[in-house]
Amino acid sequence: MLIGLDPVLTPELLSYLRAMGHGDEIVVADGSFPAAAVAKRLVRLDGVNLRRSLRAILAVLPLDESDPDPVLGMEVIGSPDERVPMHAEIAAAVTERGVNAELRLLERHAFYRRTEQAFAVVATGETGFYGNVILRKGTIARPVNMS
């Protein structure tokens, strides 16, 4: 255990988050997502919902606010303008983090293709539909005071 870190952040997940560079992407996916089939690196957080996973990850991962669309979700099949409860969960987690980024939605197959290029995929136990999000890592604007 470490002070100040959510225990959801497993050693493997922390290692991947730290190894990611500026512009690398990580996918946080629901329990129905074909994570093992598309992931270069897979972290399983079975039993942890999307909101809890995002809160833990966003507490340590800077999002890329210098380029557009650092937060990408999946469109509802056949209804690209529809927003479902999971989209609100994603947006709320990003807002809680204080990041100035809106959730943009990608068509399902475009989302899958983008996932194949991601640094890692986190498979959660989320049961809600469309609980999938791609997060692009940014940089830390100023040095963190470690004293």
UniProtKB/TrEMBL annotation:
Check the UniProt entry and state the signal peptide residues, or none: none
Keywords tagged on the record:
Isomerase
Catalyses: alpha-L-fucose = beta-L-fucose; beta-D-ribopyranose = beta-D-ribofuranose
Q: Which SUPFAM superfamilies match?
A: RbsD-like
Say yes or no: keyword Isomerase present: yes
UniProt-listed InterPro entries: RbsD-like_sf, RbsD/FucU_mutarotase, RbsD_FucU
Q: What is this protein called?
A: Ribose ABC transporter
Taxonomic placement:
Bacteria, Pseudomonadati, Pseudomonadota, Betaproteobacteria, Burkholderiales
